[in-house]
Amino acid sequence: MILGDLMKRILPATRLAAILFAIATGQMALAEPKGETKPVNPLEQPMVFSIVRSGAGYCEPNCPEWIYGEGQIVAATPAAFKKAVKQAGDRKLPLLIVSPGGNVMAAMEMGRMVRKLGLDVEVSATRFVDCTPRRQDCVPDGPEKGEYRGIAFSAGAFCWSACPLVLAAGANRYSSEWAHTGVHQITTVYAKERVYFKENYRWVNGKKKVLSRKVVKRKKAGTESTTRLPKSTRKALLGYFKEMGVGKKLLDAMLSTPPDKIRRLQPEEMLELGLITEVTMSDTLSDPERCGLRERPGHCVMRNPSPKTAILPQARPGNPT
Hints:
Elements: E1 2-9, H1 15-25, E2 48-54, E3 62-70, H2 77-88, E4 95-98, H3 104-117, E5 121-123, E6 125-128, E7 148-153, E8 158-160, H4 163-167, E9 173-176, E10 180-183, E11 187-204, E12 207-226, H5 231-244, H6 249-255, E13 263-264, H7 267-273, E14 278-280, E15 300-302
Parallel strand pairs: 2-7, 3-4, 4-5, 5-9, 8-10, 9-14
Antiparallel strand pairs: 1-11, 2-3, 3-15, 6-7, 10-13, 11-12
């Protein structure tokens, strides 16, 4: 007897995504010598969140801060995001995100948290001043315990697969002309299990009557996957899109693209769908210059000046560095 335990997830993005990100962050790995452990691609790992303060020292003592999310969206991601929000305390920090996608249901759960909190979202990566939060030996260098300093950059950053569901939830949603947002089909994976059981029965009037049944063994029997969208999932997605004010055509774009490919959504298309509210020339939410304006954003946080930076902010496209 085979029982199906349904699990839903989005296939990881194509290998191109990892290459683009690695080049942008300067973390492109060379071939490892034989016998040595191959480096782990952070984008193939569950999403981690970090609270970051701009490492552009010239903005001190008033610099932008943000929550940075990087990696695969998994079942535990909403809880991890909730923990980061709690760590931020009274600060209403925007979410900067880079992700190849992941679990659809988890993405919608996280998205609803973002919308409820009224947070802004931008497709943007972060280059940390000292070390990345994924390193176990990394000591956070931010002004608050457990927080970091870094510089955000949108060029080459991407939000694919299930990630746009999180992007759609932002109170304000930004994507620069140099970032990449895309979708593809949902892949439903069925994990099969062979169940062995012992039953007692007797024949009554020529018919078998089971008196008792007890499971004695369970054995994994592989998986099956399909891109056929269950009615329940379609209903959940359309309901979520309506809730977030996103056009139904986004689902058409998802269903028309094979799971091993990515359909990159053009800026005008994203605006029309309501997936984003603004296309920018460069980074917006992490821009230190905005903290010098009379009407500066709420995530510009005043602190005692203690600049610590080893890198310069990203130059705006078309301007000299």
